[in-house]
């Protein structure tokens, strides 16, 4: 893995870590990501549980989002569009923080649409978990985990494995057992 890839992954990690609930910027203002928990007054209003996380698999960034919602929101006509907008807000936040931290821009290209799972917890409330995949630009040196691997064992290690051991027909000089014992 090249230093460029490591720097990219560290930048993504640092950009995502700045989004914890209650985080403040340099001026002391709350950091806005575009999540539901940021709306209203935290001392007076009921807190909404939602958040996001990121993970990387090869050259793919996986952005996941979870939230507590009402059934009324699920059966609304624009539910999938709202989830797509949440993902767009999260990606916008990641790109902005990545640029601020590293000085470089983060290139992300969406690979499909949001994959959502809604689970009913009561007659009123539900949990939604969704994820969306993005291709990360500039990760050309990274091997994709879905590709076939190549045989790149060292010659000395191959020779060591060919010497036998568990299935070898050649027995060591200090083996005094009878041939029938194994």
Can you describe this structure?
The model has no long low-confidence stretch (mean pLDDT 79). The chain has helices spanning 3-17, 71-74, 79-102, 155-162; strands spanning 50-57, 60-70, 108-110, 115-120, 125-136. Helix 1 packs across helix 3. It is an alpha+beta fold and 182 residues long. It is built from 4 helices and 5 strands; from the N terminus they run αββααβββα. It starts with a helix and ends in a 20-residue tail after the last helix. It is elongated. Strand 4 (115-120) and strand 5 (125-136) form a beta hairpin. Strands 1, 2, 3, 4 and 5 form a 5-stranded antiparallel sheet that branches. 28% of the residues lie in helices and 22% in strands. It has one domain (3-151).
What are the key terms here?
182 residues; alpha+beta; 5-stranded antiparallel β-sheet; 4 helices
Biggest beta-sheet profile:
5 strands, antiparallel
E-strand count = 5
- Globally, the shape reads elongated
Distance between the termini: 45 Å
Report the total helices: 4
Order of helices and strands: HEEHHEEEH
Oligomer: single chain
What is the total domain count? 1
Supply Rg.
26 Å
Give the fraction of residues assigned to helices. 25-40%
Low-confidence stretches: none
Structural class of the secondary structure composition?
alpha+beta
β-sheet strand percentage: 15-25%
Average pLDDT level:
79
């Amino acid at each position: 893995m090249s230093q460029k890839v490591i720097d990219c992954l560290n930048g993504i990690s640092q950009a995502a870590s700045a989004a914890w609930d209650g985080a403040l910027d340099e001026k002391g203002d709350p950091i806005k990501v575009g999540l539901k928990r940021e709306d209203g007054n935290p001392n007076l209003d009921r807190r909404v549980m939602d958040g996001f996380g990121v993970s990387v698999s090869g050259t793919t960034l996986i952005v996941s989002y979870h939230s507590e919602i009402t059934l009324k929101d699920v059966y609304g006509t624009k539910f999938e569009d709202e989830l797509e907008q949440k993902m767009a807000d999260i990606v916008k936040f990641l790109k902005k923080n990545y640029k601020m931290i590293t000085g470089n821009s983060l290139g992300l290209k969406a690979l499909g649409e949001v994959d959502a799972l809604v689970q009913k917890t009561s007659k009123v409330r539900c949990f939604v978990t969704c994820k969306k995949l993005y291709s990360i630009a500039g990760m050309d040196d990274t091997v994709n985990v879905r590709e076939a691997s190549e045989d790149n064992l060292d010659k000395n290690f191959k020779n060591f494995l060919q010497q036998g051991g568990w299935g070898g027909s050649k027995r060591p000089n200090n083996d005094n057992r009878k041939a029938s014992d194994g």
